[in-house]
Amino acid sequence: MASALRDWLDKPNTGRGVHLAADDGGWDFRGYGELASAARRTAGALIEEGVRPGDVVCLILPTDFTCIETYFGVWAAGATVCLITPPLFQDGDDYVAHVAAILRQAKPVLVAASTDLADYAGRAMAQAGLPGEPWLPRQAAAEAEVQPAGELALLQFTSGSSGAPRGVMVTWDNLEANSELIARSAGFEDDDVVASWLPLYHDMGLIGCFLTPIARQGMLRLMRPDHFIRDPARWIRCFAEAQHTAAPPFAYAYCARRVKPEQLEGLDLSGWKMALIGAEPIDPHSLEVFAQLLEPFGFSRTAFRPAYGMAETTLLVTMDKELRDPLAVRPDRESLSFGKPVRILEQHSLGRRSVGAKAGWIVGCGTPEEDVPVRIVDDEGRAMPEDVLGEIVVGGASACPGYFAGAEAKSTRFIDGEVYTGDAGFFHEGQLFVLGRMGDSIKVRGRSVYVEDLESKIAEVSGLGKGRIVVVGVPGAGQKGLALFAETLDDAWVPEVRETLRRRVGEDVEVTIVVGTGLIQRTSSGKPRRRYMWERLKDGRMDGARVVD
Q1: Helix (H) or strand (E) holding 250
Q2: CA 32, 34, 38, 39: dihedral to nearest 10 degrees?
Q3: What whole-number distance in Å separates Cα of residue 239 and Cα of residue 232?
Q4: What is the pTM of this model?
């Protein structure tokens, strides 16, 4: 299969390329001609190792030129790329178990790893029952011809679950359609520059800020996440030249806390066109404090592009592409029930009064494009009108066909070419407002944390046993939440469990703990009816339930 996303490998623009952040604060540059040649020589080495079109190749590599060359080398060899996160906050054994779970499902013909990650990769391969050793990226003497490709461009594995990662199958058609949607919505022009620190194993960093600009041979300034954490002003200084970027809400608030105006002296940010915000529910406070920091340097609030997307829809679903200040609303939390009207208590465009508007506030994520239809449905799958809460359902060419190797999720489902996202939301004044996950996961710092993993840990800490614990991800306006249902009348274990959850998901996740008997409802196949349980509790229909303060 041909793909416009690979065309640059045959026709590189030698005057453009990638600026890669160096550890000393400088930048290293390689043009697309040099990168294309290295990728095709890497493809030659992969073909020598037996990689064929349609095969899956897993990459465990840090963000560097070797990663870029190997990534496109896999594509040049016609294979499917599966990027696996390097170890971040997991200890060695947990990380190895997580990678092994991915490898068991992906069944790659080759696992490429950097020298410093080869030991982890080797241990994971052994646990997964894969023969051989990790492949250290190398280049053949001659450039290979770009090979025909199989149906799948990517396997995007959901992050955060050590027990059951799920690989989203992203076809070439999915990826081309979504990349085109991103460029069109962002107003990406031929000579625009993108700057990003997002990790490449995450869909927003990979597709939005890496594959899309490279496929169009735009200039790219690429940092590692640790570069951003150590010196967020370095990212902001990129926009003296760059026009586009993306980041989760916490990153904008982090910049506002860490960056001092004197670090930006002399900077002109008036050319900054787009700062996309996504990956988790958006609170207006994070955006406003960032805007107030940068306003004296020419930054405009109209550059903010609140967006909604997920790996199962390739990436982007909606983005507010209008040249306007983002719209924030505060719904009445008591009105947030599926299939029921949402009562809006307050609303305003982003500005000075947005400071302090955190929990309870959410920001609009734009109006869907015609080629990415979005609807809101109730529990029976019936379409809901504007200002009624329900599940977000996405169709169109970006909707992926499913999870690899028959894996399933409990909240996200693929039905008749549409993705039932498991996210709660509603339309208001034509814009999509997203409350967040309802069911089997929540987003924490852009990472999916799965309730099954939390249940296992809570069962261990509380001593209750897993069958007596059910955790539900619950949406709340501008705030993430968890509800823990425990089949017991005793609550002596609650303080220790609260501390465990604080360490796992942070202090900004609201936790509701419910004890009692007869609380846990299950399907005929034995799966917990998570959303149903939460709705019953909210509606006062859960007899014998007691919320523990």
Answers
A1: helix 249-258
A2: 10
A3: 12
A4: 0.83
- Asked if residue 186 lies in contact with residue 374, where contact means CB atoms within 8 angstroms, the answer is no
- Write down the residue that tokens 């080495």 correspond to: 45
- On whether the CB atoms of residues 326 and 350 are closer than 8 A, the answer is yes
Beta-carbon count within 10 A of 31 CB = 16
Distance of alpha carbon 294 from alpha carbon 199, whole angstroms:
24
In this model, does residue 16 exceed pLDDT 60?
yes
Q: CB–CB of 293/355 below 8 Å?
A: no
Q: Which helix (H) or strand (E) holds 452?
A: helix 451-462
Q: Distance (Å, rounded) from C-alpha 457 to C-alpha 476?
A: 24
Between 29-38, 94-103, 505-514, the lowest mean confidence (pLDDT) is in: 505-514
Residues 6+ apart with CB under 8 A from 522: 528, 529
C-alpha distances in Å from residue 313, one per residue of 169, 275, 421, 430: 10, 21, 9, 21
pLDDT tens sequence across 39-77: 999 999 999 999 999 999 999 999 999 999 999 999 999
Among residues 305, 310, 417, the alpha carbon closest in space to that of 367 is found at 305
* Sequential DSSP letters for 128-144: HT--S-PBPP---SSPP
The pLDDT-based confidence of 422 (bands split at 50, 70, 90) is: confident
DSSP state of 64: S
Residue 221 phi, psi (nearest 5): -105, 115
Tokens of 26: 């400088």
Give residue 442's region: left, alpha or beta (phi > 0; psi -120 to 50): beta
pLDDT in tens, 370-385: 999 999 999 889 999 9
Could you count the other beta carbons within 10 Å of the beta carbon of residue 220?
23
pLDDT at residue 478, as a whole number: 58
d(CA 187, CA 181): 10
User: Nearest-CA neighbor of 201 among 114, 93, 86, 80?
Assistant: 86
Asked whether 220 and 194 are in contact (CB, 8 A), the reply is: yes
Query: Taking the alpha carbons of 444, 446, 449, 450 in that order, is the dihedral positive or negative?
Result: positive
pLDDT at 439 over 70: no
Q: Is the pLDDT of residue 462 over 50?
A: yes
Crossing angle, helix 65-76 and helix 32-48, to 10 degrees? 60
Q: Which residue has the tokens 């790219």?
A: 220
Backbone angles phi, psi at 219, to 5 degrees: -70, 140
Contacts of 450 (CB under 8 A, 6+ apart): 160, 161, 163, 164, 440, 441
